[in-house]
Amino acid sequence: MILRWLIGHACDKKWSKEVVMGIYVSDLRELIIKPCLEAIGDYSETAENLLAGTAAQESGQQSYCDQTEGLGIYQITAEKHVETWDKYLIQFPDLASRVRGFASQQQFLKHPHSELIGNLSYATVIAWMIYRANGVDTGKPAEVNNLAQLWATCFNNGTGCARNIEEFITTYRSTILETDSHKLVA
After folding, report:
1. Rounded to whole angstroms, how far apart are CA atoms 133 and 87?
2. CA distances from 108 to 40, 66, 118, 130, 170 (A)
3. What does the DSSP 8-state code read for residue 13?
């Protein structure tokens, strides 16, 4: 009930500037990103850093629908969500099954896009599938300039927002590289 209310009001201008929840960078990395990447067999330091940076950049510590139709901390649109399943995951049935395993058992069938908001593990895996579908190469070192370039060229979340490499670098340095591991990502 609360999630349905949040989804219904998240794009309402009256509520759009109010931060509803947040997660610490260290928790996002240790409890969400790393286990998800390991579960699908794609863990690398670069992938972990790239997803942490993407979450920080896309959510921008703003509300989830501020000026876009993106959902959740990665700001993935419903259209991009469907496209990821219909054009990418359909080619890899075993991988698709593992990805589906991150979604809620019943709610995914009723409201699949709400999983991008309320299920951080599922949203993280879908964000990674967007990177994979766009040929992300995690062979380069996990340096901020490399991560910014990968984000700019490989992460099309469907919002149509411009990809500003310098902005990603600034956000990454202030949010992810801060020595305070209890900095909120979203």
Report:
1. 9
2. 19, 24, 11, 19, 35
3. T
How far is Cα 145 from Cα 117, in angstroms, rounded to an integer? 28
Q: List residues bridging with 71 in a β-sheet.
A: 76
pLDDT for the residue 183? 63
The rounded average pLDDT for each run of 10 residues, N- to C-terminus, in the chain (186 residues) is 38 40 88 98 96 92 55 96 98 97 89 94 98 94 94 94 93 82 62
Give the span between the Cα atoms of 158 and 117, in whole angstroms: 15
**Pairwise CA distance, residues 61 & 78, whole Å:** 21
Q: 13 is written with which tokens?
A: 């201008």
Q: Under a CB-based contact definition with an 8 Å cutoff, are residues 57 and 151 in contact?
A: yes
- Could you please report the per-residue DSSP string of 84-124? IIIIIGGG-HHHHHHHHTTS-TTHHHH-GGGHHHH-HHHHH
What residues does each domain of the chain span?
Answer: 2-176
Q: What is the gyration radius of the CA atoms in the chain, in angstroms?
A: 15
